[in-house]
Amino acid sequence: MSMSTSRISHSYRSAKVPIQKANDTMRQRWRGLPFPVRVLGYIVLIGVAMLLPAQSIGNIMAPQSDWPTILFYPIGSYILLALGLNVVVGLAGMLDLGYVAFFAIGGYTMAVLGVNYNWTFWEILPVGIAVAALSGVILGAPTLRLRGDYLAIVTLGFGEIIQRVVNNLSVTGGPTGISGIPHPPSVGSLSFLTYGVLDPRPYYYLEVVMIAIVIFFSIRLENSRVGRGWVALREDEDAAEIMGVPTFTFKIWAFAIGASVGGLSGVVYASKVIAITPENYPLLLSVLILVCVVLGGSGNRAGVILGAFLVAWLPERFRGLANYRILFFGAMLVIMMIFRPGGLLPARRRASEFAHGIGGGQPLGGEIQSGQFEEDEEGEK
Amino acid sequence: MQLLEIKDLEVFYGKIQALRGISVYVNSGEIVSLIGANGAGKTTTLKTISGLRKVHSGSITFKGEDITNMVGHKRVQLGLCQAPEGRGIFPGMTVVENLEMGAYTRKKSDADKVKEDFERVFSLFPRLNERRKQVAGTMSGGEQQMLAIGRALMASPELLLLDEPSMGLAPMLVSQIFDIIQEINRQGTTVLVVEQNATKALSISNRAYVLETGTVTRSADARELLEDDSIRKAYLGE
């Protein structure tokens, strides 16, 4: 699979050069701006996000459904999940096909503690994050010695296991799930901070804040020592190890951090929807979130957010096409992957990694890589 | 003084035994080469010294410390760094970013020395200086080889492990790389080099080991091996 995709990338590289260049210049200009200007830019972005639920925007974006509801789920939730998965796939370069498991763990933590033990949302939130992170470590410790395709298969299994477990445990309510999940406590009598049943906007605002926090931490992480270690281990795990990167520990870190963001979005989601069942956490959701990351541009936050937005929004926008909308959506994905195989907004580094057929988002087994090396060497001799 | 000592090293890939009891030592200040045909276990030996392969039995001692079961990334801090075979560089990073990865384990208090090492690498490889901002994956094979060696030097190792530094390079470049290896050694770094190009490797080495199917079949002064008829026939292509 990876061999064929990388070949496609070669033949179409000329077609994507202008957009790639514009993308790079924009990024460079943005980095060149003084720090206060960039902070202002982020504040403006958050302001825009706060204005998004307006009815006039909704009339254009989603005429057939309730726009603020869609903004919370799927759009906001997908963005949050995709940012979390981006740490695992985009930064550390590991393929995780069972990411929905952490979303489920967060959701069920919220449900069980909220319904059975009467904990409040803000008490549960850190617990949900911690439980998800811990399960990431528990899954990662025995499996992260595997590479590429093998790791993907194990994570795929993990996603299925979690769904089966919650489907069969009595504490999680079996197939009927848990209902009566408490909402976050309202703050004063401000309408945008009143967490009730009818108005989805307060939940959306909460999500925007969470997204901002996750973006902040992931920028810090990417530019840290750990972040540089991730790049190295994504590009060549053995070389990273002999340069002194504790590759195994850093893989666990990536897994735990990705999982905790999944848990976070799970808690936030469950706090709105009142009832959750195992059917809320299908394999398809893991795949869709991975699509968000890969489609947008693995490793590039802006791209990942754009990808998540499109994956969540397009099927809603074309609700008028009834069942054909999924067909239409699938066709769009295929077309985009042909013309922009590195994603809509690929990270500079990822673009050149992609040309070499390495890095995450595709099977990244050492065996594929060494096979390519042998080809090269024989070609030179 | 013995810097590195390997004793009766045995390594398996699954059920296949790659090393069948190899013993090698490297003294401080030497250039030692491991020569042998494809599949003799040369690269496996280096990878095991770096900690990328598990030891089945035997021991590895570095600077008097037993490192047989130490994880790979900690060995770098002890002063042992490898330039991997072929294109073992980080292809998506620029030249400077690659070199910075070489200095990954070095402390902030070491910043001045790291800066000196940058200058040292750039003076050894002027080519890299010209291409500081180039993405490494787009460079030629020879440049990538220089980068791999330069990156290992950035760790400021006492023992530099080189895996096939001449692989896939034009003859001119091969001579140049070996001159640079000698220069690195003169500047005080001990070198253990694995090579298929036995003539070149022996001509710059103090001592050498001949490996065959996972065992050491000869060990002698490099000059002695260069003049040995059976070695010349088997490995020097005469």
Overall body shape of chain B: globular
Tell me what portion of residues of chain B adopts beta-strand conformation: 25-35%
Number of strands of chain A: 0
Distance between the termini of chain B: 36 Å
Largest sheet of chain A: none
In summary, what is this structure?
The complex is a heterodimer of chains A (381) and B (238). With 381 residues, chain A is an all-alpha fold.
Description of the structure:
The complex is a heterodimer of chains A (381) and B (238). Chain A has 381 residues and is mainly α. Helices cover 72% and strands 0% of the residues of chain A. Chain A has helices at 2-11, 13-32, 35-51, 55-61, 67-91, 100-116, 121-143, 148-168, 201-222, 225-235, 237-242, 247-273, 283-296, 301-317, 324-339, 348-355, 366-380. Residues 1-16 and 360-381 of chain A have low confidence and may be disordered. Chain B is of the alpha/beta class and 238 residues long. In chain B, 38% of the residues lie in helices and 28% in strands. In chain B, the strands form two sheets. In chain B, strands 6-7-8-3-9-10 form a six-stranded mixed β-sheet, with helices on both faces. Chain B has a four-stranded antiparallel β-sheet with strand order 2-1-4-5, covered by helices on one side. In chain B, strand 1 and strand 2 (16-27) form a beta hairpin. The model of chain B has no long low-confidence stretch (mean pLDDT 93). The A-B interface holds A 225, 228-229, 231-232, 235-236, 238-248, 349-350, 352-353, 355-356, 358-359, 373, 376-377, 380-381 and B 47, 50-52, 71-74, 76-77, 81-82, 84, 86-93, 100-102, 104-105, 135, 137-138, 141, 151, 155, 167-168.
